[in-house]
Amino acid sequence: MVAVLLLIAGLIAIATALVTLSVSQRRAAQRAFDADARRELLDGAIRVALAEISSGKPDGPFWHPRQPRTVSIGGKHVEVTIEREGGRIDLNTAEPKYLVAALAVMDRPENDARTAAVRIHDWIDPDDAAGPNGGAERREYQAAKLTYEPRNGPFETVEELRQVMGLSDLTDQQLESFTVYSQQLEPYGSEAPQPVRDALNWLSRSAGEGGVNSLPPDAVNTNSSEPVSYAGSVIRLRACLLDEKESPCRMTVQRVTGNSREPFQVFAWR
């Protein structure tokens, strides 16, 4: 009798475990399905925006930089925003003073910001000679017990900036000031997001060229009646679900080629 009861108890335990596992698997599968559906929804909204940018109607509506628009996809409302990448500071080509300014307005001491700018240059230059005033090359990374060394080549992504010695604490929001796609020596102030505008104002004050009003606060252009040309520009589109504030957004960076057969050159889509 005892053996039978033990056997029954064991079978019940096994059955309970299987039911629990099955429920857990169903929930995981549902989460994966929801994530895939959300990603396709956001990508669909981005594709709608790209189609309107490349071959929009003569009478609009037109896409203006930093002016969010709502796109309806599958009964869901998606907010899509477009920006020119030229408003950001290019890690590979920008003059060092812009790197210093961007880091300084992130509440880093100016001396630390200047050291970081030297290390950014050391990361991309082809030699192993550390720059002055705190530069860092292979030897310095090894001494710091880091398991990697400078690329000695251009940054491939903005996130790679966190690998530069001393910059591992940069937040996603702070990385928004930078790009690797514009290939410009300096950012365009008229196209810059507010953190970059703050950096340009800091640089202006440091040079004695004016105060905090050297660049006006960023403002959204609400006039959508005039067409905008993005031909030749590198643009960034971000799509976010309006009905789900906590859901991750989708982002793409592309060059508008002006070629009707291949209107866009995709750099990133995530």
Output mean pLDDT: 87
Largest sheet: 5 strands, antiparallel
Instruction: Tell me the count of domains.
Output: 2
Helix content: 25-40%
Let me know the number of strands: 7
Shape: flat
* Structural classification: alpha+beta
**Count the helices. How many?**
6
Uncertain residue ranges:
none
Order of helices and strands: HEEEHHHHEHEEE
- Using only C-alpha atoms, the radius of gyration works out to 25 Å
* Percent of sequence in beta strands: 5-15%
Strand order within the widest beta sheet: 1-2-5-6-7
N- to C-terminal separation? 62 Å
Structural overview:
This protein has 270 residues and is α+β, with helices and mostly antiparallel strands. It has two domains: 2-86 and 226-269, no CATH class; 90-214, EpsJ-like (Ribonucleotide Reductase Protein R1, domain 1), CATH 1.10.40. Helix content is 37%, strand content 14%. The protein has six helices and seven strands, in the order H-E-E-E-H-H-H-H-E-H-E-E-E. It has helices at 2-55, 96-104, 110-124, 138-143, 172-175, 194-206, and strands at 69-73, 76-84, 89-90, 178-179, 234-241, 250-256, 264-269. A five-stranded antiparallel sheet has the order 1-2-5-6-7, covered by helices on one side. Helix 2 (96-104) crosses helix 6. The chain is flat.
